[in-house]
C-alpha cells in the first residue's frame, strides 16, 4: 500500500485526549492538524468550542468523545453530552458503549444506548462513531458489539479508547470488517505509532485512524512520497 502524505492525512483523527492537556497543547494540536490537513481533531468535550474556532476556514472536522473512557454513564448523560458538544461545534461524536451490559448479554440496553446517541447526533446532521473497546471483549462479543452498532444506527464502529489495556489490532479490524460488511465504516484507534502500523490498519479495513502520533507518521509518509 502506498498513499501520499495528503491522502493519509485524510484518514487521521489527530487526537489529544490526555487529561493534562492545557489550552496551549490543544492549540498546538489544532495547528498541526491545519498544517497537514487531517480529517479531524479529536479532543475532550471541554475543548470543543476552542478547537471548532481554531479550525475555522478549513474542512477539518471537530471530533469529541462521549461517555469517555468507560462507557458506564447513563444514556441520558451521553445524550446531553452529545447535544452540548454539537452546540459547541462538534462535527463528529465518538461514544463508548456500555461495556458491562454487552458482556452481561443485555444487547437491548447496548443497542438502545447507541440509538439514543445516534438520534441526537443525526438530528443535527453529524457523524457518530461507536467505541466498543476490543481489548475487554472476546471475539464473539466484538462481533456482537459491531452488529449492535450497525443496528443502533451509528456511522462507524471504533476499536478502542486508547485508555484501556491495549489499542487497535489489525486482526480485530479484520474481524470487525467481517461483522459489519463491506460498506460500514471502521475507525482504528490506540497504539498506532508508525507508518507501517497505519498501513496495517487501513489494509485490514479501517476507514479512519485515531492517532496522537499523526505528525510522526505523516512525516514518515512524506519521506516516501
Give an overview in words.
The chain has 225 residues and is an alpha/beta fold. It has helices at 5-9, 23-36, 48-54, 75-88, 99-103, 107-122, 139-151, 170-180, 195-204, 214-224; strands spanning 12-16, 40-43, 61-66, 92-96, 127-131, 156-158, 185-189, 208-211. Strands 1-2-3-4-5-6-7-8 form an eight-stranded parallel β-barrel, surrounded by seven helices. Helix 4 (75-88) links the parallel strand 3 (61-66) and strand 4. Helix 4 (75-88) runs parallel beside helix 6. The longest helix has 16 residues, at 107-122. It catalyses: 2-deoxy-D-ribose 5-phosphate = D-glyceraldehyde 3-phosphate + acetaldehyde. The active site is at residues 94, 158, 187. GO terms for molecular function: deoxyribose-phosphate aldolase activity. Keywords: Cytoplasm, Lyase, Schiff base. Its main location: cytoplasm.
Overall mean pLDDT stands at 97
Tell me the fraction of residues in β-strands, as a range: 15-25%
- Separation, N- and C-terminal Cα atoms: 12 Å
Gyration radius over CA: 16 Å
Q: How many strand segments?
A: 8
Structural class: alpha/beta
Helix fraction by DSSP (H/I, runs of at least 4): 40-55%
Q: Which consecutive residue ranges, at least 5 long each, have pLDDT under 50?
A: none
**Strand order across the largest sheet:** 1-2-3-4-5-6-7-8
Biggest β-sheet strands, sense, barrel: 8 strands, parallel, barrel
Count of helix runs: 10
**Shape, principal axes of CA atoms:** globular
Would you list the SSEs in sequence order as H and E? HEHEHEHEHHEHEHEHEH
Amino acid at each position: 500500500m502506498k498513499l501520499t502524505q495528503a491522502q493519509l492525512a485524510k484518514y487521521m483523527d489527530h487526537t489529544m485526549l490526555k487529561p493534562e492537556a492545557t489550552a496551549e497543547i490543544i492549540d498546538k494540536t489544532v495547528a498541526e492538524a491545519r498544517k497537514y490537513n487531517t480529517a479531524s481533531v479529536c479532543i475532550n468535550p471541554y475543548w470543543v468550542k476552542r478547537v471548532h474556532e481554531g479550525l475555522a476556514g478549513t474542512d477539518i472536522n471537530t471530533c469529541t468523545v462521549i461517555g469517555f473512557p468507560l462507557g458506564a454513564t447513563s444514556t441520558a448523560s451521553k445524550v446531553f453530552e452529545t447535544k452540548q458538544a454539537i452546540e459547541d461545534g462538534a462535527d463528529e461524536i465518538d461514544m463508548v458503549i456500555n461495556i458491562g451490559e454487552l458482556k452481561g448479554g443485555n444487547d437491548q440496553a447496548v443497542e438502545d444506548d447507541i440509538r439514543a446517541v445516534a438520534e441526537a447526533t443525526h438530528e443535527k446532521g453529524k457523524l457518530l462513531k461507536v467505541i466498543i473497546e476490543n481489548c475487554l471483549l472476546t471475539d464473539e462479543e466484538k462481533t456482537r458489539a459491531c452488529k449492535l452498532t450497525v443496528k443502533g444506527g451509528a456511522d462507524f464502529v471504533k476499536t478502542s479508547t486508547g485508555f484501556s489495556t491495549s489499542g487497535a489490532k489489525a486482526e480485530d479490524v479484520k474481524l470487525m470488517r467481517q461483522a459489519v460488511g463491506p460498506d460500514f465504516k471502521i475507525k482504528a484507534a490506540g497504539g498506532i505509532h508508525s507508518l507501517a502500523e497505519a498501513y496495517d490498519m487501513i489494509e485490514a479495513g479501517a476507514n479512519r485512524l485515531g492517532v496522537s502520533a499523526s505528525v510522526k507518521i505523516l512525516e514518515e509518509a512524506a519521506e516516501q512520497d
